[in-house]
Specification:
Length: about 625
């Protein structure tokens, strides 16, 4: 954070309490007005004879200095923030004011905390500030325009009628009609979620190259001086070598047009759409790196878990039981409050508590209470709203109470691993329990003549079919050349050690990959087979290989490969199909999955092949 800005905010403490608090509220209001509507010039200016300036800012030591430090300038009768001024410092001022506007114990907790705790608390304050974007009425109108409301309402009513028929409901009483409207609102949410997942938003692992139309490979990230964009990822096309930028927007407005991203962008836009449609919605952030939405269901009188990336509603234990996440802190942010909702998402509270080591529990409680009180004491929050939110909060606390005898009430539920994102990405994060993946790809080796050579480079993650150093075919992605895999094999990149390799899933006892080579030309058959593949083992782990050779008469022989690094055989002679199978197994302890490594290679070694398979064919009539 900028030291001069911190000094200006701290100087507010020199004022009497009433003067200080009035100045803080006025400065926060100015920050929010600009950040909600940055292109509105009216929100960027204040006349010097304005009541806010005369009665709240000028009497307070440090107040005007805060505005001038973030970029405001004076032209005689007014102060204003130029259109070309960066909003980063204004955003920083807003966060500082949020942090210091609570009771002094909160300020002390943050200032005296460890680096990890301060980063955590700053992140909480930042998220609590950012959810106010959803309350911008102009932005809500833009968001609502992209939703096919009529189409979703028709689908909702169709589903509603089906439910009424199945339950033989009669809408005779007004109360029944009212309840029907509440249920319809819940059913509309189901339709909205499905539309958002399958028709509106797109998941991006890595952007496509605009020239080659193939997926690029992540290379690095740069920070970007725009409060609406947290960073820009740089991805490189492995074919034409150009760099493609992938901005990671934290403000939902540009995403209404771009309609793409990962879970952060998905939850950001979906929460905005829910707010624009009148739902009480909040943004939920999991410190183990995922985000989603919660919706207050008036019919159920509770918060409902909604994950737009997964098209899943009301399965809060999905992350712990399905994704195998080691949960720590899950915080929910809305226009009314910020709450620790971790206990809705776990049935193993004792273990979760042992993992919560970033801060003292009391410090976190004080911070959340302070931020919530500040929001609810603002001029935008009415007495009736505060009363409603407090009542709702009591219902939520009761809903999250830990009752040991009821912990198995959902034991019949099935929880699957993550479905959004590429397979390798999900496996690398340990958020998938999959053990088998069949790609069923078969290399037709006979169309390349009597000599076939396949090379794979794990650094570039490309297959190459080569003849005399000329590339005849290129295929992106190790999985795309596989016939089948088992044990959650994924491509592991170690940026700290600058190494890359294939490994099995941490949950798997073994991992297996299979390449299949077939001769479609009946005039040819196999003569010889050669294999050179890089492997590395640690702590008693094993990498073993075998060849299955299939012949015309459905005879199959299995050939053991004693050395993957240099193997040659003519036992495959007259075979018409080969399966090359490599198995990763054993190792010690919780890191056993990492002890058997296939294709281990330095990230700097971009040109050397990680695997070379050479197959000689022969004409049958010779």
């Amino acid at each position: 954070m900028d030291e001069s800005l911190e000094h200006c905010v701290k100087s507010l403490e020199e004022n009497d309490e009433d003067v200080r608090d009035e100045a803080r509220r006025a400065l926060l209001s100015i920050c929010r007005n600009v950040l909600r509507s940055p292109s509105n010039y009216r929100s960027r200016e204040l006349r010097l004879d304005d009541e806010v300036v005369v009665e709240k800012l000028l009497p307070a030591i440090g107040a005007m200095e805060c505005l001038f430090d973030v970029g405001y300038v004076e032209d005689g009768e007014r102060i204003f923030l130029p259109q070309n001024a960066s909003l980063l410092k204004l955003q920083g001022l807003s966060r500082l004011l949020c942090t210091t506007s609570g009771s002094s114990p909160i300020t002390n907790d943050i200032n005296k905390s460890s680096t990890a705790q301060k980063t955590f608390f700053d992140r909480i304050v930042g998220h609590f500030h950012d959810v106010m974007y959803y309350e911008n009425l102009n932005l809500q109108r833009k968001a609502k325009k992209v939703v096919p409301v009529v189409q979703l309402e028709i689908a909702t009513m169709t589903k509603m009628r089906d439910i009424q028929k199945s339950l033989k409901l009669k809408n005779a009483a007004d109360s029944s009609k009212f309840e029907g409207e509440l249920i319809a609102k819940d059913l509309f949410l189901v339709e909205l979620l499905h539309w958002f997942k399958y028709e509106f938003f797109e998941w991006i692992n890595s952007p496509m190259c605009p020239t080659c139309s193939i997926e690029c490979t992540y290379e690095s990230v740069i920070q970007f001086p725009d409060p609406h964009c947290s960073k820009i990822e740089l991805h490189r096309c492995q074919k034409c070598n150009i760099v493609v930028e992938f901005p990671r927007y934290t403000h939902p407005e540009p995403l209404l047009t771009l309609r793409r991203g990962r879970c952060g962008e998905w939850a950001n836009v979906f929460t905005l759409l829910c707010r624009s449609l009148g739902y009480d919605a909040r943004y939920v952030s999991d410190e183990t790196d995922h985000v989603w939405t919660e919706i207050w269901s008036a019919s159920s009188k509770r918060w409902i878990h909604v994950d737009p990336c997964e098209n899943v509603i009301d399965k809060p234990l999905m992350y712990e039981k399905g994704w195998q996440k080691k949960l720590t802190y899950i915080i929910a942010y809305s226009k009314d409050e910020v709450q620790d909702v971790t206990w809705r998402y776990t049935r193993n509270q004792e273990t979760v508590m042992k993992r919560r080591k970033i801060c003292a529990e009391q410090s976190l409680i004080r911070l959340l209470q302070s931020l919530t009180e500040q929001r609810q004491n603002s001029a935008d929050c009415s007495y009736a709203r505060r009363k409603y939110v407090i009542k709702r909060r009591l219902l939520e606390l009761a809903d999250m109470l830990y009752i040991p005898n009821s912990q198995n009430k959902d034991s019949d539920e099935t929880y699957e691993g993550r479905t959004s994102g590429s397979l390798m990405w999900r496996l690398a994060r340990g958020e998938i329990t999959q053990t088998d993946t069949g790609k069923s790809y078969i290399w037709d080796i006979s169309k390349y003549g009597q000599a076939f050579e396949l090379r794979y480079n794990v650094v570039k993650d490309f297959y190459y079919v080569v003849r005399n150093d000329t590339v005849l075919k290129r295929k992106s992605g190790w999985l795309e050349g596989m016939n089948a895999t088992e044990g959650g094999i994924f491509r592991k990149v170690e940026n700290d050690w600058k190494m890359v390799y294939l490994a099995r899933s941490p949950q798997a006892k073994y991992g297996r990959v299979k390449w299949t080579f077939e001769i479609s030309n009946s005039e040819l058959y196999l003569e010889t087979f050669s294999l050179k593949a890089k492997t590395e083992v640690f702590q008693g782990a094993k990498v073993s290989c075998e060849i299955e050779a299939v012949f015309d008469e459905n005879k199959t022989i299995v050939i053991a490969v004693p050395n993957c690094g240099n193997f040659h055989t003519d036992e495959v002679r007259k075979a018409v199909r080969l399966n090359v199978i490599i198995t990763l197994s054993d190792g010690q302890g919780s890191e056993a999955w990492q002890h058997a490594q296939l294709f281990r290679q330095s990230l700097d070694n971009t040109e050397e092949s990680s695997m070379i398979i050479s197959i000689q064919l022969k004409n049958r009539c010779v």
